[in-house]
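Renewal narrative, Specific Aim 1. Our central claim is that a sequence can be written position by position from structural information alone. The example that follows is taken directly from our test logs and has not been curated for this report. It begins with the structure tokens describing the chain, in the order in which they were read.
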């Protein structure tokens, strides 16, 4: 938790502590904690603030073709980071595409792209084993994901996390008669992007609760 937020929290708790004899104070404590960010899970890596960041996503096939999953995750994550991280400058997708086209990029060299688009950091996502079906009649997304942050100037890896076999929905799935593959893909990759972006910004842990139920409303 940032110092400013922590100080706000302490101040609010002191105010409420003076009113402990008043009815409903515990409810007030809960409200104040939420307002001050007391329920937020902190970012695991906070080094993207005030940086020019290239978000690069590769899948098993995206090195050789225009892969829709890689594009969707790249756009989703870029949008989340732009919204959640202070003064971040996310490199536009068309800038990355232009560099790749000009340089015939067909290998996993994230630093080369980072240097090419003048980024400070590269956030690289490697997605493997992505599938949308569990059998012939059930949609259930699965993928393994490795997230890595590189510092472009030093060439060093600053952060890495691996998620083995991320699944959504966690239990069950959605029958193919209830939706289309394109619609389910959009929902699955949106959820995956939210999970992968959370390494870099605080988030409310309650947002992770009952996500399977939310699938029914999409």
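The sequence written for that structure reads:
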């Amino acid at each position: 938790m940032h110092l400013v937020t922590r100080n706000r929290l302490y101040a609010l708790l002191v105010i409420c502590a003076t009113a402990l004899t008043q009815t409903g104070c515990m409810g007030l404590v809960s409200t104040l904690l939420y307002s001050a960010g007391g329920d937020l899970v902190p970012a695991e890596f906070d080094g993207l603030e005030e940086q020019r960041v290239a978000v690069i996503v590769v899948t098993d096939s995206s090195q050789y073709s225009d892969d829709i999953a890689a594009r969707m995750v790249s756009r989703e994550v870029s949008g989340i980071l732009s919204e959640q991280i202070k003064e971040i400058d996310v490199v536009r997708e068309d800038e990355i595409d232009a560099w790749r086209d000009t340089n015939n990029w067909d290998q996993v060299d994230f630093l080369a792209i980072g240097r090419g688009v003048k980024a400070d950091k590269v956030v690289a996502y490697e997605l493997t084993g992505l599938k949308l079906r569990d059998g012939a009649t059930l949609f259930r997304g699965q993928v393994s994901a490795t997230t890595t942050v590189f510092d472009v100037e030093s060439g060093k890896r600053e952060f890495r996390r691996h998620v083995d076999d991320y699944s959504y929905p966690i239990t069950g799935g959605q029958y193919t008669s209830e939706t289309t593959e394109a619609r389910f893909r959009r929902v699955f990759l949106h959820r995956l992007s939210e999970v992968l972006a959370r390494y870099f910004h605080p988030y409310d842990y309650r947002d992770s609760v009952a996500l399977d139920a939310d699938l029914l409303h999409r």
